[in-house]
Design brief:
Rossmann fold, 2 domains, three-stranded antiparallel sheet, binds adenosine-5'-triphosphate, binds magnesium ion
Length: 308
């Protein structure tokens, strides 16, 4: 099975989702699930000349013999918010780790067309990773936890103070810089983890199911925080999730993966001029987007069964 992209992936009735709405608002409230390159948000001040990162026919075979990815290609433009969605074991984390340089490829390439790369083929300092667990150091306070990536670059606490306080303020934790992880809620710990990822001002933020362990209300709040940060900073985000709802709320592009072996099943641009907020969550457009993504996910699961 080859990869499917855009309209090829979306056969009727899913090829083009249009929502019936009053004429006066019709133009504003259309969600297109077909490729709309011109509608792709760009990072502020950043020309979208070359992609940020491109996976080219990446295959990953672990030493156990498991083929986690096979011929996976994915091109990510600067400023995109991409969700990687797919069934458990389809290779989402493997793909993210390979992009982060935390694992090598068995064949294929990762290209960074718009970055300066180091001797390991990685763009120096341009990538941050947020894991499902906040992975904070319990013996260090919030300030020191966020300082860590800067400390590794030889930047002292004194020199980094303004930068750290600014990023803590961005995630709403400016009053908790002295607190220890044990004094924070799960959502606050995750905010610290996000602050630590952002403090180096990366171009690309990789998030592997960051909110999966949190309650629904906290998860929704953090979804809004991440969207705000994405808009404010122009950062590119690749966000791994199991949740159709989360992917349809956050992303401007959803890449649905299929398992055994892992590869792209469908690539669904999601364009809306609506603000992603509480109103959007209850809108017909959001419902339609969720339905489209859900159909695609079911298609990916069925296709993997047929391949066996
Ligand atoms: N270090 C490893 N050694 C051997 N096999 C691995 C390793 N890491 C992952 N795998 C296998 O590779 C496949 C893809 O795993 P991966 O963790 O990327 O999936 P995933 O889509 O992130 O799943 P989940 O949604 O459950 O997190 C699985 O079959 C998994 O068992
Ligand atoms: Mg995973």
């Amino acid at each position: 099975m080859g990869e499917m992209r855009g309209s090829h992936a979306l056969r009727p009735p899913l090829a083009h989702v249009r929502v019936e709405i009053p004429a006066a608002r019709r133009k504003r409230q259309t969600i297109l699930m077909t490729p709309q390159p011109s509608a792709m948000p760009s990072a502020p001040g950043e020309a979208r000349k070359r992609p940020l990162v491109a996976m080219a026919e990446v295959t990953k075979v672990f030493s156990s013999g498991t083929v986690a990815l096979s011929g996976m290609s994915l091109t990510v433009e600067s400023g995109e918010f991409i969700s990687l969605l797919g069934p458990s074991g389809c290779g989402k984390s493997t793909a993210l780790r390979i992009i982060a340089g935390l694992g090598d490829v068995s064949s294929g390439r990762i290209d960074w067309p718009s970055s300066r790369i180091n001797s390991k083929g990685q763009p120096d300092g341009d990538i941050s990773f947020v894991f499902q667990e906040p992975t904070l150091m319990p013996w260090k306070n919030v300030f020191d936890n966020v300082h860590l990536p800067l400390k590794l670059r030889g930047i002292s606490k004194t020199a980094a103070r303004d930068q750290i306080m600014q990023v803590l303020s961005t995630v709403g934790l400016q009053d908790f810089s002295e607190a220890y992880p044990r004094e924070l809620s799960g959502g606050m710990k995750m905010r610290v983890s996000i602050a630590r990822a952002l403090v180096t001002k990366p171009k690309l933020l990789l998030m592997d199911e960051p909110f999966a362990a949190l309650d629904e209300i906290t998860r929704q709040k953090l979804n809004d925080d991440v969207l705000r940060l994405w808009k404010e900073t122009g950062i590119t985000v690749i966000f791994v999730t199991h949740s159709v709802f989360e992917s349809a709320y956050l992303s401007n592009r959803i890449v649905v993966m299929k398992a055994r072996p892992g590869r792209v099943h469908a690539d669904l641009p999601l364009v809306t001029s609506l603000e992603r907020d509480a109103h959007y969550r209850t809108s017909e457009e959001y419902r339609q987007a969720c339905e489209t993504v859900s159909h695609s996910l079911i298609g990916a699961i069925n296709a993997a069964k047929e391949d066996r």
